[in-house]
Amino acid sequence: MRAKLVVFPIRGRNWCFSRSIDHSLSSSPASSQSPSTLKDLWTNINVGDKPLNAKAELFVDYIAFKMNRGWIGLETAPDGSFKKKIHGLGLWLLSRVQPSEIFLKSISKEITSVEVVYPSSLNAQLVRRRLRHIAVRGAIIHRNYFYGSISLIPLTSAFSILPLPNVPFFWILFRTYSHWRALQVHTNTNFAQY
Predict the structure, then answer these.
(1) Predicted structure pTM score
(2) Residues 152-187: pLDDT tens digits?
């Protein structure tokens, strides 16, 4: 799969990074193997001699699918309901996430080549240096926050005894997933080569 990165400075050290994917060149059916039910997950994990990391990736895809469906359920709730208020809180929390993390999380391992598009007035070396800086700095930051988020999961799971939705637990779980996904970019050699 081929990705196109659009890069341009906004103001000072703030840059905009956007990614688009050309699916017409995609030949891997990895996204279609994402399990949507527990039965599909069980059969995909137990079929064949898959390595442990491939099984973990299937499990993560299953959890991400379920969380996405739950988020859509909150989004479609009627106005003024408790679910809609939780959705508003989630949107507020998401607005506080660093844009570079969202950018890094959007780059998947199925990407085979990366094309970087930037204004002609910019020096190519400056753009490469800025992308490399985000990748290197992101590796350090996301690794630290990943371990910090993992350590907070047991603490926030204790809130499950309350009769309210466990928003802190799911937020920490989402942040752990986001940091893990952002860390996966650093193992993608096509992104690291640019």
Answers:
(1) 0.71
(2) 999 999 888 888 788 889 889 889 988 888 887 776
In which residue are the tokens 């989630």 written? 90
CA 53/CA 144 separation, integer angstroms? 21
Beta bridge partners of 113: 2
Angle at 91 between CA 188 and CA 168, to 5 degrees: 85
Give the C-alpha separation, 117 to 62, whole Å: 33
Q: Distance (Å, rounded) from C-alpha 16 to C-alpha 26?
A: 26
Joined tokens for residue 147? 């371990």
How many Å apart are CA 70 and CA 117, to the nearest integer? 35
* Residues constituting the chain: 194
Give the DSSP letter string of 5-74.
EEEEEEETTEEEEEEEEEGGG----TGGG---SHHHHHHHHHSS---HHHHHHHHHHHHHHHHHHHHHHH
Show the tokens assigned to 55.
């099984």
- Give 27's pLDDT tier (boundaries 50, 70, 90): very low
The token duo for 71 is 């988020």
